[in-house]
């Protein structure tokens, strides 16, 4: 997300823990090369960068079992010392794999929009998971493998739980956006070389367009 939004013209940053190993050094070098701010990241020694393994079948991605590592990098914990830095941004985006759900209630900065990606994990799309997160979100997104009726039911439930802008991507079926009214998007088929990052790049472009439209925290449409 930091890379994609940077490529779309934003001044972006990444906040997290990075392992003090070869792969961690590579992540740092790429971020510096792309001018992505990592000044608030923590370098952690005696831990290893976890690897997500993906195979390509034609031009489609297949997620394999992650390569297990010893001493996986711990997730970053929110500290009050980060408040001034985080609140200096127009938008903060995070996802279900960041494991920051318990910290989200503390991300109530005056003007900073909060966005969360639920991915397509079945357990994350259960009300018991998102009902305690949605009240603190300005934007929620997820990738839906469900039919349209079920997708809309989840979107309406997230809205009722407090998130007033919900986006669902549905692969070749296009996208649905809900904020008390429904808006539908379509897909144009292309000969993709690699579909890795397709969802993240779409969310990046969507949120950048929202910011460029002048949308502010508390706006209703």
Give the topology, please:
Blueprint: H1 2-7, E1 17-19, H2 22-33, E2 42-44, E3 54-57, E4 60-63, H3 83-86, E5 91-95, E6 113-117, H4 127-130, E7 139-143, H5 148-160, E8 166-169, E9 175-178, E10 182-185, H6 198-212
The helix/strand order is HEHEEEHEEHEHEEEH
**Number of strand segments:** 10
Mean pLDDT: 91
Looking at how many chains there are and whether they match, the oligomeric state comes to single chain
Descriptive report:
The chain is an alpha/beta fold and 221 residues long. It is 24% helix and 19% strand. It has 6 helices and 10 strands. It has helices at 2-7, 22-33, 83-86, 127-130, 148-160, 198-212; strands at 17-19, 42-44, 54-57, 60-63, 91-95, 113-117, 139-143, 166-169, 175-178, 182-185. The protein has a 6-stranded mixed β-sheet with strand order 5-6-7-8-9-10, with helices on both faces. A two-stranded parallel ribbon has the order 1-2. Strand 7, helix 5 (148-160) and strand 8 (166-169) form a beta-alpha-beta unit. The longest helix is centred in the last third of the chain and has 15 residues, at 198-212.
Tags for this entry?
two-stranded parallel ribbon, 221 residues, alpha/beta, 10 strands, six-stranded mixed beta sheet, 24% helix
What's a concise summary of this model?
The chain is an alpha/beta fold. It is 24% helix and 19% strand.
